[in-house]
Design a protein that fits this description.
By secondary structure, this protein is α/β, with parallel strands linked by helices. The chain has 2 domains: about 280 residues, 3-Layer(aba) Sandwich (Rossmann fold), CATH 3.40.50.720; about 140 residues, no CATH class. It is about 45% helix and about 10% strand. The chain contains 17 helices and 12 strands. Helix 10 packs antiparallel against helix 14. The longest helix has about 40 residues. The N and C termini lie far apart (about 90 Å).
């Protein structure tokens, strides 16, 4: 072995190779060592550039949604406004000055009405374009206690429609932006700010009393369907007066804006989805809403679908900052949310003060729904009798509320066959399999009919359908054309998607 090493080292070529290898190892080691040292230096430099967070530092804790509590240090004007507002809320503010500021409201509403307004407690959920204008109008009109609930921050795109936000407010929570600006106008108003996302689980806490004062009114200015439905359902169930703003997006005609019962709202996708979800929860009317009857048309703004490349990134529900929250930018003309918000505030002022006002009445169709339910019961009994079933005491698992939901929300008050809106009824679309009557409970017979089995027709169309399809040997495909089959299929698929909310 030693002789082999001696021969190798004596070779000139071997010496060159050895020298090259050793040099390469040394150079590689030097390069790797330099890179490691450089990375360490960069990391230490980055750490050194990050200031420590303290009570005095301008950075503060973030909320669970990344909203900063206070990014910009208050100006001297802000500090004076904050001090004045604090003294005013402690009673250190001349009441004559307040009455002078509210003089026009006072002569309109009378002293009694203004006193009711000044002692009112209103909760505004959603502090964007609609909510900010509603809040500003209420504060300027004399409401003394206002709770603001919103998790979001002011953005640059908010400034085209927000009532009080300025460029300096971008990045700050909307609730504190509104409080800070309105305290400069009505320093006696007490603002209870909740920089939080409203939800079903937090409804009780967010809609609770303030200093023992239960809310006189709640304003829904939310554009998230889940939160909107949760808020309206909670208020309806707990008998809290509430008014809801429907969609201002893609609207441009202020003459089409109405205030009416939610059952009368039409031509508004947000209203339709909200109304349908609430009906599934047993709430069909009794909630006033601000909505627009404006229809879309050529050249008008529309809510465009998400581009295909967005769907390739994964589930659409995962594209938003929050679960089940909208991920699209809504086309909004800045004036329309303001009109919606002022209409909402106007309603609240009239309601609290007892000032006379009349709006569109709700649809009173209970008798019609009862008649349709009776007709459906007759269809099921005849179908069971034709199959040799004992129909004594046969029940169907469909209620008057279900009938109203199917007629109004699924089939929009029209026959799926002809589009007629008179003499309507509900009937099975396909003939059921044998055994559609459940007899497992002694002394009780009930049909296994489900809502998704039913379609809306006129009575004449249903009689023909019963003869040819339900009691005959034909299928709907044998009787109806492709357009009708497609329409029924779309309605049934849509209803399946809504079943999870029932």
């Amino acid at each position: 072995m030693s002789s082999w090493i001696s021969r190798v080292t004596a070779s000139h070529n071997a010496q060159l190779v050895t020298t090259a290898v050793v040099s390469g190892v040394v150079v590689a080691g030097a390069i790797l060592g330099f890179q490691k040292a450089r990375r360490q230096y960069v990391i230490e430099d980055l750490k050194a550039s990050i200031p420590s967070i303290s009570q005095e530092h301008e950075a503060t804790r973030l909320t669970g949604y990344g909203a900063a509590a206070d990014i910009f240090a208050p100006t001297k004007e802000d500090e004076r406004s904050i001090a004045l507002a604090w003294r005013a809320r402690q009673g250190d503010y001349d009441d004559d000055l307040i009455l002078e500021q509210l003089a026009r409201n006072r002569v309109f509403l009378t002293d009694e009405g203004l006193a009711k307004l000044r002692s009112a407690f209103v909760i505004v959920v959603g502090c964007g374009g609609v909510g900010s204008h509603a809040t500003a109008a209420l504060a300027r009109s004399g409401v003394s206690k206002i709770r603001l609930v919103d998790f979001d921050q002011v953005t640059l795109s908010s400034l085209n429609r927000h009532a009080v936000a300025t460029l300096a407010d971008v990045g700050t929570p909307k609730v504190h932006c509104i409080r800070k600006r309105l305290e400069q106008i009505t320093p006696w108003t007490h603002f209870d700010c909740r920089n939080e996302l409203f939800g079903e689980a937090s409804a009780e806490r967010q809609l609770c009393a303030l200093d023992g004062h239960e809310p006189d009114y709640v304003i829904d200015a939310i554009d998230n369907i889940d939160s909107k439905v949760a808020l309206l359902n909670y208020c309806h169930k707990h008998k809290i007066r509430v008014i809801s703003s429907m969609g201002a997006g893609c609207k441009s005609d202020p003459t089409r804006i109405l205030i009416g019962d939610i059952s009368t709202s039409t031509d508004d996708p947000l209203s339709k989805s909200t109304r349908r979800r609430l009906r599934a929860l047993g709430v069909k009317d009794g909630i006033p809403v601000v909505f627009s009857t404006e229809k879309t048309g050529p050249g008008k703004a529309q809510l465009l679908p998400l581009p295909e490349d967005e769907f390739t990134k994964g589930s659409v529900g995962e594209l938003g900052v929050l679960p089940d929250f909208r991920v699209r930018i809504l086309p909004v003309l800045g004036t329309m949310p303001a009109i919606f918000g002022l209409a909402v505030a106007n309603h609240v002022i009239l309601e609290i003060t007892g000032y006379p006002h009349e709006y569109l009445p709700s649809k009173a169709r209970d008798k019609m729904y009862d008649g349709i339910l009776g007709t459906l019961q007759g269809f099921e009994e005849r179908l069971a009798r034709a199959r040799g079933e004992d129909i004594q005491g046969l029940r169907i698992p469909i209620t008057q509320e279900d009938v109203g939901y199917l007629i109004e929300e699924v089939y929009h008050g029209r026959s799926v066959i002809s589009g007629l809106s008179t003499r309507l009824c509900l009937t099975r679309w396909r003939a059921p399999e044998d055994g559609f009557v459940d007899k497992r409970t002694p002394g009780q017979r009930n049909s296994l009919l489900q809502m998704r089995d039913l379609v809306c027709m006129t009575k004449e169309e249903a009689a023909k359908h019963e003869k040819e399809v339900l009691n005959g040997k034909k299928t709907p495909e044998d009787v109806y054309d492709a357009k009708i089959l497609e329409a029924v299929g779309e309605r049934m698929e849509e209803e399946k998607r809504y079943e999870r909310f029932r």
